[in-house]
Structures are given as structure tokens and as C-alpha cells.
Amino acid sequence: MGLGCFLILYTISSLFLLPASLLTLSVGAIYGFWCGTFLVTFFSTFGALANFLTARFLLRGFIGRFLIIKPRFLSFDQAIRREGWKVILFSRFSPVFPHSLISYAAGLTKIPLTQFSLATLLGYVPLSAVYTYAGSIFGTVVRANLELGCFSPMSISISALGLIATLLAVAISARIANRALSNIKQV
């Protein structure tokens, strides 16, 4: 029951361009790091595929009217033609890029479904791991404090350090992805 609800919520958040970071943190808190990372990667990929297929087959004209006229879409389309799956892969590494919008836009390009799917799946792993790790730390601290009956300064400090490490990892991955995408656009 719980997994099905998370899958539905991820798909809805993707289709309606809503951020899923709170869902990801929740999955980490509930299911832990390893299981949570696997689930979040799967759920996020499923949501991205829903956007991609919606743009490609169901609402192509409607979505195309909004995206095709944008200069950013035109450069995205050209980058996809030159580099294909690399653009999708690197865009997934960064939390700065609107993943749902990228999935919709990719559905309007000529990238094959298999390339899109594999690049999306692999690209979501690092960011999913970072957010899931933050959620698992939070879940562990909350569970430990519920057992102790209070929030100790030590547990708050550990949580703060974990959060800082997570934010640094996200910032570093965003910089790496931005550089990689800049290099692809210059080619």
C-alpha cells in the first residue's frame, strides 16, 4: 500500500511539475538509505517516463505550443541531436534543472525511448542517494529521540552535520552537471 502511494505521488508530482524533494526525504526516513535510494530512483524514472510519453504521444501539440517557441528548447533540441543521452544524463545530476520539464521537452525531440530511459535511470541515482541519505538521517534521529523521549543536543548536531554534507554534495553535483552541459552546448 505505501509503495503504491509513493509511486502515484511521484507520478503526479512529475506530471504537474511539482517538486518531489519532500517525497524523497520521506522515502529515506521511512525505508532507509539503500532501499529508499532504489525506490526513489525507480519512482523518479517512472514519473519521468510518464512525462516523456505524454509529450511524445498524448499532448504533443499542446506541450509543443509552449516549448517549441522558447529559445531554450531550441538549444536543448540541438544539444539532444548532437549528444543525445548525455544531455539527459547530465541534466539529471543537478537539482537546479526542472526534471519534469526536461522530460516533457525530451518527449518532443528525436531521442529514442531506450536512451532516454537509461540516461534518466542512471542520472537519477546520485541525486536520489543524496536526498534519500538526508531523509534516512532524519528518520534515524527522530526514531532515536522518540525512544529516548527527547531531542538531545548531540542528535541535533549530527542531523545538522548530515544536512550540511548533503547540501554540499548537491551543490557540487549541480556545478559538475552545469559544466558538463556547458561543454556539450559549446561542441
Structure at a glance:
With 187 residues, this protein is mostly helical. It has helices at 2-15, 21-31, 33-58, 60-67, 71-83, 85-92, 99-107, 113-148, 153-186.
Protein described:
The protein is mainly α. The protein has one domain. It is built from 9 helices and no strands. The protein has helices at 2-15, 21-31, 33-58, 60-67, 71-83, 85-92, 99-107, 113-148, 153-186. Helix 1 crosses helix 3 (33-58) and helix 6 runs antiparallel to helix 9 (153-186). The mean pLDDT is 82.
Number of domains: 1
Return residue spans where pLDDT drops below 50 for at least 5 consecutive residues: none
Derived from helix and strand composition plus strand pairing, the structural class reads mainly alpha
**Overall average pLDDT:** 82
CA radius of gyration: 18 Å
Major β-sheet, in short? none
Distance between the termini: 47 Å
N-to-C order of helices and strands? HHHHHHHHH
Coarse shape: elongated
Helix content: over 70%
The number of distinct β-strands equals 0
Output the number of helix runs.
Answer: 9
Q: How much of the residues is beta strand, in percent? A: under 5%
